[in-house]
Amino acid sequence: MVRLWQLARAQREWVSNAVTHEEIPPDVDELYGLEPVIEPGEAAPGSAAPESVQSRAVPCPYCGETFDTTIDLSSGSTSYIEDCQVCCQPIEFLLEVAEDGTLANLETRRGD
Ligand SMILES: [Zn+2]
Description:
Helix content: 10-25%
Order of helices and strands: HHEEEEE
Bound molecules: zinc ion
């Protein structure tokens, strides 16, 4: 199976060439390291527009369970009531949005 062997060898050389010669921008790792990537591939690195609707895991102040909730940053800082998905108690969400449209703070507290 000389041809197969040659093919494998050529492939290996191609791979090693690609690794050696392909220019990878040195700042890629930094870009990915700077902001926590919650949904990889959603936002291109360096993109100025943050996702306005995000999914966050928050702890319930009543039962202590953590559940995922969707927050909307497009309308700015706000507070609202949402029922716990586990124990159905009304949780008050305090949502703070930074000037650049990113999430500054998200707190949950008992609404009663
Ligand atoms: Zn709960």
